[in-house]
Specification:
This protein has 156 residues and is α+β, with helices and mostly antiparallel strands. It contains 6 helices and 3 strands, in the order ααββααβαα. 53% of the residues lie in helices and 14% in strands. β1 and β2 form a beta hairpin. It starts with a helix and ends in a 6-residue tail after the last helix.
Length: 156
């Protein structure tokens, strides 16, 4: 189940219940992502752990009623992820008030912050694809394919 949610997050296609996201959810999520990115870019936060922190906001998922949002973030520059995430959670009311001013919504959503693990996942996939075992298997498969193409009796 957790793997399916991660795949849905990476694809941006469905909510936690497996339903497809509405165009409004996608649009509001993208507006929230841009507004949060601008807040981090400005860097005028009171919390010393957030001030000057370089953070990428990769995606914001909204609930169907737009009252809750999960922001997936990736701290840059070797910053301790957990400390930065804790600081973001402490500052969530500040972010919510700033988003309320930046985006015209009836209700500013309650924010949750999560580390975007898709970069780590992509790195693991890349390591696997470049491992000697996979390279050997790919070479063997390519050799088998070349042999099959050369033999006219095996072609159909």
């Amino acid at each position: 189940m957790a793997r399916n949610r991660k795949a849905a997050h990476a694809a941006g296609g469905s909510d936690s219940a497996g339903r497809p996201k509405s165009p409004r959810q996608l649009r509001v999520g993208e507006e929230l992502r841009h507004a949060l990115a601008r807040l981090f870019e400005r860097g005028d936060m009171r919390d010393p752990e957030l001030r000057g922190a370089s953070v990428t906001v990769t995606q914001v998922d909204c609930s169907p009623d737009l009252r809750n949002a999960v922001a997936y973030v990736m701290p840059l520059g070797g910053v301790d992820r957990e400390r930065l995430l804790a600081a973001m959670r402490r500052a969530a009311p500040y972010f919510r008030s700033q988003l309320a001013r930046a985006i015209e919504l009836r209700h500013a959503p309650e924010l949750q912050f999560r580390i975007d693990e898709s970069f780590d996942y992509a790195g693991r996939i890349n390591e696997i694809l470049h491992s000697p075992d996979v390279a050997r298997d790919l070479d063997t498969a390519a050799d088998d394919g070349a042999t099959a193409d050369a033999d006219p009796k095996t072609r159909r």
